[in-house]
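Reopening this one. Same input as before:
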Amino acid sequence: MARTRKTASGRESLRIGELGRRLDLNPKTIRYYEQIGLLPPAERSDSGYRLFSRQDEERLRFIASARRVGFGLGEIKEVLALRERGQAPCRYVSETIERRRSEIDSQLADLRRLKGELDELSERARTRPPAGEQAGYCHILEAETGR
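Same output, byte for byte:
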């Protein structure tokens, strides 16, 4: 069971490994988020261990949730900055969600087109006999040129 500690300010805190286990995050990821400013610098114990507060845990939980649905680190940073300025970030979040949905729709259309091409190539591979040694690279992938 995780032991809680007190920070210099008297708040309960967790060390990075304990926090990582709670949130299923690698401690390297937590240090990186701190390094790029997604997390404020952690307080340190007398022996130099990072000590994270419940507020840090909530912030990391939000970051992990946003990452799971495809938000980039820059987008998350913007949401956090808006909140820290006292502004509601929900409009920005909604716009980001819609932009991401549009990107995914485009990717899905591209994947459907690619699947159709692969289906055609698969059919070509099943129905045409192998070409001889002198016939180009591979008849399955070579485009029809009216031969």
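So the earlier flakiness isn't reproducible anymore. For the record, The mean pLDDT is 88.
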